[in-house]
Write a structure and sequence with these properties.
Layout lengths: L4 H7 L11 E6 L3 E7 L19 H17 L8 E12 L8 E12 L2 E10 L2 E13 L3
Antiparallel strand pairs: 1-2, 2-4, 3-6, 4-5, 5-6
Length: 144
């Protein structure tokens, strides 16, 4: 299953400039999702990180991976409309630099679900090379 940007907006509460997933290329609700973020030199964070040597911030790579995991979890009927929050991030490794023009491939697999919590493993690649990996913990809460 593939989801376009407007479809993702129906699932995730994030909006520009903080919606960091352009397309979901594969989705198995509650189990896994894969997506892409196409990085343009016009992205707002490149203005300050770093103007002479623009680099996509590592914390935003983690956020993009979490958003892909959020799509997997929020695609389950029982989670529709909930707010996905970080509950933890472990085993983070940055293995490469991500720059304007790169296509960041994002993959998050949900390894365990317990109540309103989800646990997953996430990997980001550029041109087949791993640039970031982490273990993520999600909390899904009811919106007020």
């Amino acid at each position: 299953m593939q989801l376009e940007y407007t479809d993702i907006q129906k699932i995730l509460p994030h909006r520009y400039p903080f919606l960091l997933v352009d397309r979901i290329t594969a989705l198995e609700p509650g189990v896994s999702a894969e997506g892409i973020k196409q990085l343009s030199g016009n992205e707002i964070f490149f203005q300050g990180h770093f103007p002479e040597e623009p680099v996509f911030p590592g914390v935003l790579q983690i956020e993009a991976l979490a958003q892909v995991g959020g799509v997997a979890l929020l695609s389950l009927e029982e989670n529709k409309g909930k707010l996905p929050l970080f509950a933890g991030v472990d085993k983070v490794r940055f293995r490469g630099v991500v720059r304007p023009g790169d296509t960041l491939q994002l993959s998050t697999k949900i390894s365990k679900r317990r109540g309103d919590f989800g646990f997953g493993t996430a990997v980001a690649t550029v041109a087949g090379e791993v640039v970031c990996e982490a273990t993520l913990m999600f909390a899904l809460i009811e919106r007020e």
